[in-house]
Amino acid sequence: MRNKGVNISLKSYDEIFSTEETRQDTGEHVIMVKLDKIHSFKNHPFKVVDDEDMRKTADSIREYGVLVPAIVRPLGNGEYEMISGHRRRYASKLAGKDEMPVIVREMDDDTATILMVDSNLQREHILPSERAKAYQMKMDAMKRQGQRSDLGTSGQVGQKLGAREQIAKETGESGRQVQRFMRLNNLIPELLEMVDEKKIAFNPAVELSYLKPQEQKEFFEAMDIMQTPPSLSQAQRLKKSSQEGKCTPELIESIMDEDKKSPLNRVVFDFEDLRKYFPKNYTSKQMQTAILLMLDQWSRTKAKPQEK
User: Fold this and answer.
1) Contact 124, 9 (CB under 8 A)
2) Is the dihedral of CA 180, 183, 184, 187 positive or negative?
3) 69 and 33 Cβ atoms separated by less than 8 Å
4) Which has the least CB within 10 A, 57, 131, 175, 253?
């Protein structure tokens, strides 16, 4: 099983790392560097998780060593910044190693950012938040490098379209899908985490990203009370209400309180029908608690004559 994992890792980096022959032609070579001399890439968007795959990688490194050198760039004074190889560095630490093989390359910030993103997008499992941040980082780097659209446009709009379409071509996504992923960067951290945890589906999450930060906080609180994820229709209506300046806490709660399926084993009340019997500041949860309490008291009162 270890050999299989190693082969997959080598294959995924075939187009990222140069061959030994190419390195000799360019003067590049592999050197061993202490792990504590290699620093993480600034704002690295990909999480390094200590999971089962990481432990398998550590076992492989413990037995065979790091077979694919990392790529770093020099910071001076014998320090380096990791461009590609964050997981291998972490696995090396788990394996009890104190150094790893690296290829040292001089490159500017934008070139380093693009290479860092491209090498990590080779991974099989990438969280929506990771993809969103990575696409945005690469987009910004490409725009700074002066990317232009092949559609005959110019200026900032042309740069944006050109970079987006280039990312789409390289990742196999559509340009629209790349843009939709980057929309997730507008979500507050609490909601973005729920997208990663699959508590909120991708399509509704994109719609929610159009809500203002305060509206998103209010939505997060309402969702916590309702204990139910939003449907695409609900998210679209919340987006529209925000654009119209009508996305109040009351409206958010009303939309989220809708019964999606109306199962036969549930009694469903319209939110507005119940609202007139309770103080305005009552949440749906408080109303539910109060109704159940009153029903319990009514049941006890009804049972007393029968006991006599």
Assistant:
1) no
2) negative
3) no
4) 175
Report the chain's mean pLDDT, rounded to a whole number.
83
Question: Helices 232-243 and 249-256: crossing angle, nearest 10°?
Answer: 160
Whether the predicted pLDDT of 302 surpasses 90: no
Q: Do residues 80 and 33 lie in contact, with contact meaning Cβ atoms separated by under 8 Å?
A: yes
Q: Does residue 244 carry a pLDDT above 90?
A: yes
Supply 54's token pair.
């990481």
The answer for residues whose C-beta is within 8 angstroms of residue 274's C-beta and 6 or more apart is 287, 291
Provide the 10 A C-beta neighbour count for residue 219. 26
What is the structure's pLDDT at 308? 52
- What separation, in Å, do the N-terminal and C-terminal C-alpha atoms of the chain show? 74
**Sorting pLDDT into bands at 50, 70 and 90, what band is 281?**
confident
- The CA–CA distances, whole Å, from 220 to 64, 142, 203, 256, 282 equal 47, 34, 17, 11, 17
Query: What CA–CA distance (Å, rounded) separates 255 from 230?
Result: 9
Rounded to whole angstroms, how far apart are CA atoms 209 and 191? 9
Please tell me the predicted confidence (pLDDT) of residue 194: 96
CA distance 308 to 301: 12
Spell out the long-range contacts of 168-171 with Cβ–Cβ below 8 A and sequence spacing 24 or more.
170/118, 171/121
